[in-house]
Amino acid sequence: MDLLIKNGTVVTESESFIADIAVKDGKIALIGKNLPLEAKKIVNAAGKYVLPGAIDVHTHLAMPFGGTVSADGYLSGTRAAACGGVTTVFDYPMQRKGKGILETVEERLKMCAPQACVDYAFHCIITDLNEGSLLDEFQAAVDYGITSFKCFFVYKKEGMMVDDGTFVKVLLKAKEVGAITNLHAENPDIIDMNIERFLKEGKTSAWYHYLSRPEFVEAEADKRAIHWAKTFDAPLYIVHLANKEGVEAAAAAKLEGYNIFVETCPQYLEFTCEVYKREDGRNFVCSPPIKGQESQDALWAAIKNGTVDVVATDHCPFQSYEKDWGKDDFTKIPNGCAGIENLYPYMLSKANEGKITFNTAVKLCATNPARIFGCTDKGSITVGKDADIVIYDPDQEFTISVDNMHSDYDHTIWEGVKLHGYPVQTYVRGELVYDHGNFVGKPGFGKFIKREPRIRKG
Ligand code: URP
Ligand code: ZN
Ligand code: ZN
Ligand code: ZN
To answer: Recorded E.C. number(s) (predicted)?
Structure first.
């Protein structure tokens, strides 16, 4: 064997048990009690948890946005991922008018391949159907391993917004080829109306970012998207869902048996819209904005009852000087926050505190993302799967600070947040990439994950 992790508490989505894990050729070869095996490397994990690596299915690395580019590229973003126990990262190449899907993806693949420190996959953002001809390329994209697409109901001036007609065409084509459609759901017209009014009234602080897109702005779009997904019985994955009414609509549709999947993010679980009243409120500006306490409570309830399928980060950091562009006008703040290194430690800390179980944390951050997005070799400590493994010390106290993160940004909304327990090692396909606070991986080691299509239904 190449690696033997002994006596840890192995956690899957459904059970926890003490066992040894043997790794050979990057795969989990055996799981059992007191395995009588020789190995090149033996790790004693007694008193520790042994978990599948997290899969962060929502990141924006080196993303052109808001007049700049997000502050983490593929190297620093995946380095930070490794140090937070994330072993697979999903990024979003953005198709532009006149461009094809595969050429868009291959351009990003070329950038990412030499830099990636963990494994990676791509959802492709669709912004323009090229008079319909782009739809003919969906099957080829799926054959290439791109089995999910993404639409935005907002960001008109960035050229990313699609109308309902385009969205429904994507939804239908994705269904036909065994892919799934991701959606950023907010209502652009109401946002524009609010912004126009606030700016006219001189209301320009970050608080008005929240007030221009409050709960109902997101809820309407969630419900509209769910309506189309139900009407055409097409799979729909709502990204970064942050409001109570939307999560309740999704829960009802799921109960009826529709393939509606819900993602939320740690920032919506930890903070409330009150942060936008702070002096540094602009640093928390992301879309959808962080909502009120009632929504946060509803999201935690939805995590516990299974309505939320995935917790992912929406990692899209900007430097302080870029956030400062919006000091006197919230519409000039680049949207997005850091989080890739905090996702798993945060959710596992909540498990350690007893708010959720460790099994639930594993399901939300690893097993469900792999299942929903067709990463068949990943997401679980199971014989035959990739040896993407995190060893977690439940007794290590950790206070998040920009100084102990491994990204390229200069501030974090997570500054000062205290965690109970922290990852001590991360392995990607059996290779150690993070060790007790230090990145020990190699740029270029990460591999493109060709994903499986969904089983086509009806
Ligand atoms: O504010 C955010 N979330 N920025 C990144 C783009 C997006 O909407 O996901
Ligand atoms: Zn978004
Ligand atoms: Zn996003
Ligand atoms: Zn503690």
So the answer is: 3.5.2.2
